[in-house]
Amino acid sequence: MLAAACWAEALRAQTAKHFAWFDPSTAAEINAIAAQIIPDDDTPGADRAGVIWFIDGALAGYDQDKRGLYTRGLAEAQAKRAQMFRESTSIAGLTSAQQVELLKAIEHTEFFQQVRRHTILGFFGDPKYGGNRDMAGWKLIGVEHAMRYQPPFGYYDAEAAGKDTR
Fold first, then answer.
1. Domain extents for the chain?
2. What's the whole-model pTM score?
3. What backbone phi and psi angles, to 5 degrees, belong to 48?
């Protein structure tokens, strides 16, 4: 019963229809950045794993103090985009190659580092927090979800029992 409740919560987080903090255009811009940090290829990347929902939830919840960084940082990234690609209107509207070029230009900023951190957390974190849709990140690294885990066994078990195995 508890397992069913946990999975219901995870599914609710992954099927949200409205952002808690982002507006749709800001979400599209941040999603475009995240999608270049962990791109889709033969396996799902940040976009298909729903990382934007994790980031939105983080900024609406435990990481509210990062909202100003996102607002300022995105404005600076937009200014850099306009400088580099004068005909463009958005980061999401750039080609993949142009997005990568832009991200290389801002990769040492605090904003980019925070988006990168949130992207990685959202990709590999527990799906109940909004990202890692269909456990894409876990599948990529070979984690099998189970409600109960056995500890890995090794020489340290013998040490705990007072035996020396060396």
1. 2-143
2. 0.79
3. -70, -25
